[in-house]
Design brief:
There is one protein chain. The chain is an alpha/beta fold and about 425 residues long. Helix content is about 45%, strand content about 15%. The strands form three sheets. It has an eight-stranded parallel β-barrel with strand order 1-2-3-4-5-7-10-11, surrounded by six helices. Strands 6-8-9 form a three-stranded mixed β-sheet. Strands 12-13 form a two-stranded antiparallel sheet. About 50% of the residues are buried. The model has no long low-confidence stretch (mean pLDDT about 95).
Length: about 425
């Protein structure tokens, strides 16, 4: 394969999924609830907070030249308006480590987790969140901006709408469960495979009656609006206003920093009769965000699989299709299709900020990487402005409500010793990067 000079070949992580002990965040609080929907707590995670140097060196030694990671809002601002200088210095050291190893740091300001205090104020449906997020973005830029060239403000800004749609379907299935428990269970599994984040809908439904009381005790409300709560249309717009406000705050201090957002994007396809349903789905997932992002420096494209639509709406994966641990269809060609479709209406730079599969068979990950990057190469050959590819994930980590059972990593992490073992897939990605 041939890629242009300066193309970013990297891997991605999210702070809460790898650092460990993120005790001031909403996710941590939810993991501790007696009737939590999490299969296990994050705990020390991969202890990346203390072992980042080892992990970045493994990335660099394989031949990769970029690392997309998130700084943790709940660490940096554990109480409203009170910033922790020690924590911002920690992230400065992470960035310096990247630079020392010739790795480009691509920084995400918010990757799903928020400070508990923000959720107590109403979270991602509260008007105050726009200015709170902008203040946080300004602080990070003031302290670290001199060493950063790329910032993603918000990870998968459209996730709340995707979850809202699936939650509605899941609630319907839950009501039918008494009459057809086994059918509901199998359907629930397929529903979880329709969203690109680790969710445990079945357990959420079982725990619903307890969760309201326990959430009220922790967050002051029975239905806290975390970033991955089902989002209202007003909340969806609020997220985009928060992005714009953060971008303005960053540019006011460091106009040279390239700023974008990332979106969770399926390769949406239709079968005969499903054209309108597919078009509506693409509008909700991408098109309606264009007015908010059209002037961004880049868009972070995050894709894992395709979604097919028929006359009645979204279809299950084709019979006999290979499925990953997350119940996604193994379909690496989706990435090329999504890049081309996005470029039709978003003409600025594109960076693939996440793409990968959860599997115990690393040979399938190797195959996925080769085919996905062949698609990226095709796009670049046709003149599309794709500037980088960050594989998800650098290491096996905490996949949200699914716990540590979903293995996305290029590097294996022993759950008892935390020993790192690079997989063949890391070498495959590195060899492509080296050309």
């Amino acid at each position: 394969m041939s890629f242009p000079k300066g193309f970013f070949f990297g891997a991605a992580t999210a702070a809460h999924q790898v650092e460990g002990n993120n005790i001031h965040s909403d996710y941590w609080a939810q993991e501790q609830l007696p009737h939590t929907s999490f299969t296990e707590p994050s705990g020390i995670a991969c202890d990346h907070y203390n072992r980042y140097e080892e992990d970045i060196k493994l990335l660099a030694s394989a031949g990769l030249n970029a690392y997309r990671f998130s700084v943790e809002w709940a660490r940096i601002e554990p109480e409203e308006g009170q910033f922790d200088e020690n924590e911002i210095e920690h992230y400065r050291r992470v960035i310096e480590c990247c630079r020392a190893n010739n790795v480009e740091p691509i920084v995400t300001l918010m990757h799903f987790t928020s400070p508990v205090w923000l959720i107590k104020k109403g979270g991602w449906e509260a008007e105050s969140t726009v200015s709170d997020f902008a203040r946080y973005a300004s602080y990070v830029t003031e302290k670290l901006g001199g060493d950063i060239r790329y910032i993603c403000t918000i990870n998968e800004a459209n996730m709340g709408l995707q979850l809202a749609a699936i939650s509605k379907r899941y609630e319907l299935m839950a009501r039918q469960a008494a009459a057809a428990a086994s059918a509901a269970e199998s359907s629930g599994k397929s529903e979880e495979g329709k969203v690109q984040v680790g969710m445990n809908f079945e357990k959420m439904m079982e725990n619903m009656k307890f969760a309201a009381m326990e959430n009220a005790q922790v967050f002051g409300t029975p239905k806290p609006q975390t970033f991955v709560s089902s989002r209202t249309p007003a909340g969806d717009e609020l997220v985009m206003r928060a992005h714009v406000a953060a971008k303005e705050a960053i540019k006011a201090l460091r106009p040279e920093i390239k700023v974008g957002i990332t979106l969770s994007l399926h390769d949406i396809q239709s079968v005969p009769g499903g054209e309108k349903a597919a078009a509506d789905a693409w509008d909700e997932e991408f098109i309606h965000y264009l007015p908010w992002i059209k002037d961004d420096d880049f868009l972070g494209v995050q894709n894992y699989t395709r979604s097919q639509y028929g006359p009645e709406g979204q279809l299950p994966s084709p019979a006999g299709a290979e499925l990953t641990q997350m119940d996604y269809e193994f379909y690496p060609e989706a990435l090329e299709h999504v890049i081309r479709k996005v470029h039709e209406q978003f003409r600025n730079d594109l960076i693939v900020t996440e793409n990968g599969i959860a599997t115990a068979d690393d040979s399938r990950r190797c195959e996925f990487i080769r085919r996905a990057l062949a698609g990226v190469e095709n796009c670049i050959a046709d003149g599309l402005p794709v500037k980088g590819y960050c594989h998800w994930s650098l290491m096996d980590n905490f996949e949200w409500q699914k716990g540590f059972s979903m293995t996305f990593g290029l590097i294996a992490v022993d759950r008892k010793t935390l020993e790192r073992t690079p997989k063949e897939s890391l070498a495959v990605l590195g060899s492509i990067a080296k050309g």
